[in-house]
Amino acid sequence: MNLTKNKYNDSVQSQNKIIDIHQNQNKTFKIGLVGNPNSGKTTLFNRLTGSNQYVGNWPGVTVEKKEGTLKNHNLSANIIDLPGIYSLSPYSPEEVLTRDFIANDCPDLIINIIDSTNIERNLYLTTQLMELDCNMILAVNMIDILEKKGKVINYDLLEKKLNVPVVPISASKGGGLDKLIDKASEILHNQIIAFGQKNKIFCLNIESIINKISDIIEKDSNIIINKRFYAVKILEDDFIITSKFNFDTKTKEKIENLKKQIPTDDIFDREIIIADQRYKYICSICKQSTKQKITRKKKSLSNKIDVIATGKFTSIPLFVILMLAVFYITFGPIGNYFKISAENIINVYIGQKIENILIFLGASDWSLSLVMDAAVRGVGSVISFLPQVLILYGLLSFLEDSGYMSRAAFVMDKLLKKLGLSGKSFIPLLMGFGCSVPAILGSRIIENKKDRFMTIFLIPFMSCSAKTPVYLLFASSFFPYHQTIVIFSIYILGILVAILTAYIFKDSLFKGENSTFIMEMPEYKFPSAKNLWLHIWQKTKDFIERAGTVILGATVIIWFLESFDKNFSFVSDSSKSILALAGNFVSPIFTVCGFADWRVVVSLLTGLIAKESIVSSMALLYASDNAQHLSYILTNSFSIYAALAFMVFVLLYTPCVAAVSAIYKEFGSLKLTVFSIIYQLFIAFLFSALTFQIGTLIGSFIP
Ligand code: GDP
Ligand code: MG
Question: What is the pLDDT of residues 330-388, one digit of tens each?
């Protein structure tokens, strides 16, 4: 047996960690990335593992832990990207996940990544991690920004003061990463054991109480690993940890007496005293090891922009203008140009060629119909909207990456509070414009259960990008010159319905305390092309994959059902098919909405599988040859008010099955999930009928 001691360690020697060095050479180590939200964990993770995880500029983007293997280094390790946390006293489910992983799964090494431009706040977590018996490296990130700000950190001094190895890095630029891995390798292969616990963070009195409680834990529960951590948590009255120990009455009394030795009053309870001492400790270390160069700019550009972006009278108009601009670029002339090009490519270059080849090969009527109607025209009609979906998504990612969306969340906090929500809800709600599924999962960043449930309940009203092809189809057919404003209004209606819903339920279904909202403001920056490309590429892959699987599948099923009658004989007139029979049974309900047609009902039904399927189903059921032809048929089948009513219905009705199952997973209640589905259907029907009826009424006055 061989145990190498290092300069950081001379007090802790836990037997469990003594492992033969030679055995260690071939081991695959487990390395956890731990840090505050937005400190750069995912960026570092992507750098080290070569994977393309989504890098977000707001907290909560990483909700579940992600694992990858270290690439291009002489160290065999699995890297785990954990959800960001501010402390080891968890409030939200994601914080629990991170803490459980660190304390129970015991990674071989923790890389605590901290944002050097916010070092005091980030070190708060570090002081808690130091209480664990776990190897740790402090990766001081974003040193590129730090340099620009004219700040200097004395890393050697910081290392000496904290008793933890410190490596300065820039995760996004790639600086210092080799050094980081070398350090990790050195620690892991030499089995150096935890360092930081010997630091005296608290005053003498509290330190001695912590030691006494540690001794009790060791004697009473036979726990030797992480006992300082547990002792501090017991002092802080951490419920989850305390309930893990089964102390007898006498020991409990002993601990209570020890706790009472810390003088508290109404304002300063024990938890606050402990937090306060941590900050004092951090302040003294930072004071010694950081320096501000004298040449400091008067006011940074970020601050200047923030005067407008978060100003009392300018913030909301700016938000509206930016959103209008985003919509105009997407749905105006620029987006249209791309849409028409895509249609041409699909119809002329791909569709015609396939048809010619099939005819040349002597394909039968029905196989020709299957390929051309279901695959080319059906799925093709969806794919032709891809460019515009990408433009919309890309622009929103651009705003997110630039740091603007964090400001928007901050501005919205006040508005959302009035609805019984907090600014934290803004992030998942905004993600809902992309796709409801990650948005629903992302709402785990909201620690307050009532806020979380309410947010999940509202997300489906945020129009997801899969619905965009439907709006585009109808807006370009019925309102070719006013597409931007029509689609913008649809999005706004979704938001208004969400607000209304929040208002209705805030005092009944989702009643409870409001939570406070802490959100950091990252510096504004020009979004990196790579990050933007990753977002867009991910979305493209996702879109094509869906088109090729779910949407194609649904379209083929629809094709089959509309091609055969109830005796399973091929029919050329689809109005005699099984599908028409079933659709005609339900369609009369929609008379008040103006679209009582079996083909519409069937399309809406396929929309439950994926919203884009509505478009492919319509292309198929209305037997259109191409996009222009479909527009032409639709304008002859719908009145403009019915078209509007239909868009409203699509906006508000039940989301796709993937989203419903995510809702069920998060609610953990079948009753609540069913209630949300019924509510969505009811609201969709109500607003759709109102749109049609009011529209028709107004229309009757216009000559
Ligand atoms: P996480 O929440 O800890 O996973 O943080 P992310 O990896 O999502 O990073 C948050 C933001 O900081 C992203 O916009 C990154 O591009 C940016 N970022 C990360 N590391 C650096 C760095 O070293 N320098 C600069 N300038 N930006 C960085
Ligand atoms: Mg992350």
Answer: 877 888 788 788 878 887 888 888 889 998 998 887 788 888 877 887 788 778 778 88
- Per-residue pLDDT of 672-688, as tens digits, reads 999 999 999 999 999 99
Cα torsion at 234, 235, 240, 245 (round to 10°)?
A: 20
pTM to 2 decimals?
0.58
d(CA 125, ligand 2 centre) in Å: 16
Q: How many helices (H) and strands (E) does the chain have?
A: 34, 8
The pair of structure tokens assigned to 296 is 């400091």
Cα separation of 260 and 262, whole Å? Answer: 5
Query: What are the residues whose beta carbons fall under 8 Å from the beta carbon of 247, sequence distance 6 or more?
Result: 216, 220, 255
Q: For residues 72 and 51, what is the distance between their CA atoms, to the nearest angstrom?
A: 13
> Which has the closest alpha carbon to 515: 432, 455, 460?
455
**Distance, CA of 541 to CA of 96 (rounded, Å):** 32
pLDDT in tens, 147-194: 888 888 999 999 988 989 999 999 988 889 999 999 999 888 886 665
Residue by residue, DSSP assigns 607-641 as: TTT-TTHHHHHHHHHTT-SSHHHHHHHHHHHS-HH
Q: For residues 276 and 288, give the distance between their C-alpha atoms in angstroms, rounded to a whole number.
A: 19
Specify whether the CB–CB gap between 527 and 535 falls below 8 A: no
Element housing 151 (H / E): strand 151-153
Largest CA distance in the chain: 96
Read off the pLDDT band of 511 (50, 70, 90). Answer: low
Calpha distance 626→607 (Å, rounded): 21
Q: Which of 146, 172, 173 to mutate to test the pocket of ligand 1 (most atoms within 8 A of CB)?
A: 172
Which amino acid, 700? Answer: S
- Residues that place a CB less than 5 A from ion ligand 2: 41-42, 62
Rounded Cα gap, residues 226 and 582, in angstroms: 64
SS3 for 115? strand
Q: How far is the CA of 443 from the centre of ligand 1 (A)?
A: 21
Containing H/E element for 414? Answer: helix 404-418
Beta bridge partners of 32: 80, 110
Ligand 1 shell residues, CB under 6 Å: 35, 37-43, 55-57, 61-62, 84, 141-142, 144-145, 170-173
According to DSSP, the residues that pair with 139 across neighbouring strands are: 113, 167
Question: Which of 279, 277, 271, 239 is CA-nearest to residue 91?
Answer: 239
- pLDDT tens, residue by residue, 604-638: 988 888 888 899 889 888 877 777 888 899 999 99
Contacts of 501-508 spanning 24+ positions with Cβ under 8 A: 501/457, 501/458, 501/461, 501/679, 501/683, 502/419, 502/420, 502/421, 502/454, 502/458, 503/419, 505/454, 505/457, 506/419, 506/420, 506/421, 506/454, 507/420
Q: Whose CA is nearest to atom 19 of ligand 1?
A: 40
Region 25-44 average pLDDT: 87
- What count of other Cβ atoms lies within 10 Å of the Cβ of residue 65? 16
Atom 10 of ligand 1, residue of closest alpha carbon: 38
Nearest to 74 by CA among 192, 193, 188, 194: 188
* Distance (Å, whole) CA 47 – CA 83: 17
Identify the bridge partners of residue 29 per DSSP, sorted by sequence position: 77
Closest-CA residue, ligand 1 atom 25, reads 142
How far is 258 from 278, CA to CA, in rounded Å? 20
CB 425 within 8 A of CB 462: no
Q: What pLDDT was estimated at residue 231?
A: 92
Virtual torsion, Cα 203, 209, 212, 217, nearest 10 deg: -110
* DSSP 3-state of 489: helix
